[in-house]
């Protein structure tokens, strides 16, 4: 998310009208969003089977996406953009824990038997489905594009969980294509944020679903 979303939902966080571009605080979303796109694209490619290398996205997630989201989380919190901080922090945990899970299972960091790897992945997927599902509901007061984006993530996680539990490549691939839909939403948010930052008109993000 960008501070644009927070300002839309909570007008009291708008900057004074006399502020100039030079005096405006930075936008953590301009760091977070492109790195979310890169990490999400990598996950989409691997989960759809376009590239049949499950851990191929880990270098991006661990070295770029996770670090960028951590910076954006701390920066948002410092600016008092608490909604943005919780969203960025949640996705930092999601991407970072995926990288650790993938590397840990591959290199036996956690002493988990190969026979239990599937259950471990299922637990990881379920934990994040519950967490991001809760976030989806709690952000219904934001413009509709934000909870819908999170709903897409929920559906992707559900599809991946079904694929994991049933060993269904079709469900896993469906989850991967839903990840691409998620990436499409984030591309729009990034374009909206950067377009406004460079002096363009504000792109529409939709009305809140709940007043």
What report would you give on this structure?
The structure is a single chain. With 211 residues, the chain is mainly alpha-helical. The chain contains 7 helices and no strands. Helix 3 (58-78) runs antiparallel to helix 4. It is globular. Residues 1-21 have low confidence and may be disordered.
Please outline what is shown here:
This is GPR1/FUN34/yaaH family protein. Its main location: membrane. It is built from seven helices and no strands.
Give the secondary structure arrangement, pairings included.
Layout: H1 3-9, H2 29-47, H3 58-78, H4 82-107, H5 117-138, H6 145-166, H7 169-197
Helix pairs in contact: 2-3, 2-4, 2-7, 3-4, 4-5, 5-6, 6-7
Organism: Mycolicibacterium neoaurum
Subcellular location: Membrane
Membrane topology: Multi-pass membrane protein
């Amino acid at each position: 998310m960008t501070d644009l979303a927070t300002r839309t939902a909570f007008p009291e966080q708008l900057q004074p009208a006399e502020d100039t571009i030079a005096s405006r605080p930075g936008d953590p979303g301009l760091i977070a969003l492109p790195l979310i796109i890169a990490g999400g694209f990598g996950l989409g490619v691997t989960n759809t089977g376009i590239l049949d290398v499950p851990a191929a996205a880990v270098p991006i997630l661990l070295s770029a996406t996770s670090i960028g989201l951590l910076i954006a989380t701390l920066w948002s919190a410092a600016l008092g953009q608490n909604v943005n901080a919780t969203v960025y922090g949640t996705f930092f945990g999601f991407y970072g824990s995926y990288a650790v899970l993938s590397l840990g299972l591959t290199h036996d960091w956690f002493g988990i038997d190969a026979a239990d790897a599937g259950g471990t992945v299922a637990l990881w997927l379920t934990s994040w489905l519950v967490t991001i599902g809760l976030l989806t509901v709690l952000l219904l007061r934001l413009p509709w594009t934000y909870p819908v984006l999170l709903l897409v993530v929920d559906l992707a996680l559900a599809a991946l969980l079904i694929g994991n539990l049933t060993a269904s490549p079709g469900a896993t691939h469906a989850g991967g294509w839903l990840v691409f839909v998620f990436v499409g939403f984030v591309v729009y948010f990034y374009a909206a944020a950067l377009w406004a930052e460079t002096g363009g008109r504000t792109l529409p993000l939709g009305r809140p679903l709940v007043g």
